[in-house]
Automatic annotation (TrEMBL), chains A, B:
InterPro entries: HTH_LacI, LacI/GalR-like_sensor, Lambda_DNA-bd_dom_sf, Peripla_BP_I. This is HTH-type transcriptional regulator TreR. It comes from the Bacteria. Gene3D superfamilies: 3.40.50.2300, lambda repressor-like DNA-binding domains. Keywords: DNA-binding, Transcription, Transcription regulation. Pfam families: LacI, Peripla_BP_3. The lineage of its organism: Bacteria, Bacillati, Bacillota, Bacilli, Lactobacillales. GO terms for molecular function: DNA-binding transcription factor activity; transcription cis-regulatory region binding.
DNA sequence: GTGTAAAAAGAAAGCGCTTAACAAAATAGA
DNA sequence: TCTATTTTGTTAAGCGCTTTCTTTTTACAC
């Protein structure tokens, strides 16, 4: 490891003072063009990179954003992170990534503690802003010490949370209407004539699940009624859909006409279970879901789902975060993106249209 | 934003000197238990977090690792990152995440420049170690300025690269045998009696593609021969498999008996194309691939693929990186993980067994 | 030439911390 | 009791930079 070259070295090489070199680095005006060019040349020749730690100490800016994410393997978050990375990079920020879920499910206390630790870490590092995706915030009830830690963090550093607003939290929230999206897909399935509809997937105690499930139930109750045997929660992954559908298929109960899967990945498992039983979607059982994950059009059948326009979430959240960092007045426009039904094959709408032609 | 509390404030509150407080923070022995406890109490009461920038300046350690990744949306990398995050966090490091691909494909110059910029950024931030996943390193030929920048980075900070060794690069490489995995799946397909086999997916000019394609061709040439019309490269995503398979299905050429997809996601698109043409895998066309992505067992048909044990890559890479950071002698054991065939449904091996019973 | 204002350059303080060097106090041995 | 040693605490330097305050240089008018 070579010894790092410092601003002092550059000053010496250029035969000038440290402060003049600093002025050149920071594009301060009061340096003559001649000297400026000379110094720039020397900086380039020696491949000098100013030490950001030192700059950060005095300027109180680290050009760093912390991203706290509960599950980096979830493509919903990955999508978000990659958007966030690009926008941040273009704005001159680098991301500190903090994942708070180890592997699989964790017990609640443990994950709460992990997030609180993350906040401490963030505080130590003096980042300029914090973005929180999912995690504890998704829970229906948040521990008091978590809320305290989060508010303390937000006292020191601007925090923007992508998720549903929670009471008592002072951070800024950017949210999507999770109720509405489940309502849309349930209405669609009902409109196609299905009356006995199952709900599969989602983790109990997590807000997105309760909201979507509530939407499902309320909507169902208008035209039909919910058979509680047909509501099977678990988590958000294909295995969950597979197990859920299988238990329905293997039970004594009458089979449903249709299934609302909590998201496309769960639907994937549902399809697999159906196929294993020689059944077919949409002909035997229609399946609809939410979230429009990438590549849903390659599933067999192509999945009918609800696009929440999550692709704009990262952009909006950063927009706010940058405003907070710069102490600007918040301008909460351009936030509304309504969920939108994407009709593909798995609910059978197109097939029905063809028949009616 | 509250004013941050500093070590000075703690010293004043504790009626002692800054250095004594520092000793307590750093668990230095020469402080009496009484004073130590008193100071610890005050630190806790005031929720004091030492400023890591300041600590980093003097100690030359930032407890930060940079992770440079070309495409954070690729689940192969996401898997890797999430492992890396957990291990790093447990070792007291936080990750700086730098994604170098914006969206979709980029032209080569642009992405080279993005990575070089990333290296500069890393240098400025004085991280303790760097991990590189994919990116330029994957290309068959690397630009000179890229190699120079990479070597300069490695001169200052330990760099570990997960990928195939490139000439002239001084960083440490951790690799998997990409040739072997394609060889395995091709052999499997040949052993099942297929002779006319297509190769779909992968990006020309990227090393993993050339290596797997070379393995495919060499293996094929032993028992059969390669019809160049049946080799269709593009990229690594379902669309690529879909388009590739479709073009085969729509062409005048005789259809292949089997397909080697470069990875499971490409195979996914292949299945979709087959299905659109009323064809079925493995009955009409067998499909095998590499990489054993998560949830492959939920595909229809369940995919037969080759597990590269990439799950151990992150662990091994960090193991080395930590050794380099601590200036330890490198101990390159436990590195061998042979690729392994996972037989599921899509090549038809099990069906054949049943028939023979 | 002198005088003055503006521009350019430099000196020095300080960001929050660690740590070497030193000083003081406590303990031990003679 | 007195010195030698160990333990505990303090002072101050310095990490690499920014920035305020000062000084020097330059430009221009008279």
């Amino acid at each position: 490891m070579k010894n790092k070259i410092t601003i002092k070295d550059i000053a010496k090489l250029a035969g000038t003072s440290v402060s003049t070199v600093s002025r050149v680095i920071n594009d301060s005006p009061s340096v003559s063009d001649k000297k400026r060019n000379h110094i720039k040349q020397i900086i380039a020749d020696n491949n000098f990179q100013p030490n950001m730690l030192a700059r950060g100490m005095v300027s109180n800016k680290t050009q760093t954003l912390a991203v706290v994410v509960s599950d980096i393997n979830n493509p919903y978050f990955t999508d978000l992170i990659s958007q966030i990375e690009v926008i941040s990079r273009n704005a001159g920020y680098t991301l500190l990534l903090i994942n708070t879920m180890t592997a699989g499910k964790m017990n609640k206390d443990n994950s709460t503690q992990l997030e609180i630790n993350a906040f401490k870490n963030i505080l130590e590092r003096h980042v300029d802003g914090v973005l929180i995706l999912g995690g504890e915030i998704d829970r229906e009830s948040v521990a008091d010490n978590y809320l305290t830690a989060l508010n303390e963090l937000n006292d020191q550093i601007p925090v923007v949370i992508i998720g549903q607003k929670i009471d008592g939290c002072n951070a800024l929230f950017v949210e999507r209407d999770q109720f509405r999206s489940a309502e849309i897909i349930t209405q669609h399935l009902l409109a196609l004539g299905n009356r006995r509809i199952a709900f599969i997937g989602g983790e109990p105690g997590i807000r997105i699940t309760s909201q979507r499930l509530a939407a499902f139930k309320e909507t169902m109750n208008i035209y039909s009624k919910v058979d509680e045997h047909l509501v099977i929660l678990n988590d958000y992954y294909p295995q969950s859909g597979y197990d859920g559908m299988n238990s329905l298929l293997n039970s004594e109960e009458k089979l449903p006409d249709a299934v609302v899967a909590i998201n496309d990945r769960v639907a994937w498992g549902v399809f697999r279970a159906l196929h294993d039983h020689g059944l077919n979607s949409p002909d035997d059982i229609a399946v609809g879901s939410c979230d429009a994950f990438p590549n849903g059009e390659f599933m067999t059948p192509r999945i009918t789902t609800v696009n929440q326009h999550n692709e704009s979430l990262g952009k909006i959240a950063l927009h706010f975060l940058f405003q907070l960092i710069d102490n600007k007045e918040l301008n909460r426009t351009e936030e509304t993106h309504l969920p939108e039904l994407i009709i593909r094959e798995s609910c059978g709408a197109k097939k029905r249209d063809e028949k009616n032609d």
